Each structure stands twice: as structure tokens, then as C-alpha cells.
Amino acid sequence: MPKPLIVDIPHDLGRDEAKRRLEHGTDQARAFLAKSGVTIDQLAWTGDRLDFGVSAMTQKIGGTIDVGPESVRLEVKLPFLLALFAEKIQKVASKEGNLLLTKK
Prior knowledge:
The protein is an alpha+beta fold. Helix content is 40%, strand content 37%. It has three helices and five strands. It has a five-stranded antiparallel sheet. β2 and β3 form a beta hairpin. The chain is globular, with a radius of gyration of 13 Å. It starts with a strand and ends with a helix. It comes from Methylobacterium brachiatum. This is Polyhydroxyalkanoic acid system family protein.
């Protein structure tokens, strides 16, 4: 099994504001991903951790988002087929995460 994809996104919002933005952003992400053929199967917050599961290209993907006071850490377990696209996925996740956590 491939190594998990990890993206750390620094922010200066504080834990509560970063979590609020991520909670709001999940609604937007659901609509965006649906257009790309990706289905969100699970979204569950436990404290400052979001566990998620999505389906894409008949593949199941699971991961977590941990919200810290100065950074957000995304960890995704990609199946082998999608691990081939890990670099592109990492770039998109980093870019979109930065936009979500830096825009006013």
C-alpha cells in the first residue's frame, strides 16, 4: 500500500476560526467534487478532527483533517490506482486549502 499523502497548511487564524472555515468549506467542496464525479461518503467531526471518506473512479479514499492552532494537516490514504496522481492531488489540496484559510 502506498504511503499516505500528507499536506500541512500553515495559518494564522487560530484553531476555532480555521475549523469554522473548514466546516463552511465542506459544503462548497461537496458541490465542487460532485461535478468531478467524486462522491463524499462520510464527514464526521470529532473535536478538531474531521474524518472523511470519498469515492472516485470506483476507488474508496479515506483520510483525516486535523485542525491545529497554527496549521491544518490533511492526511489521505490513496489506493494504488489513485496514488499515481498523488503529486497533482497534493498540489490541488495545498492550493485550495491555502485559499480557504487565507482569504478574508
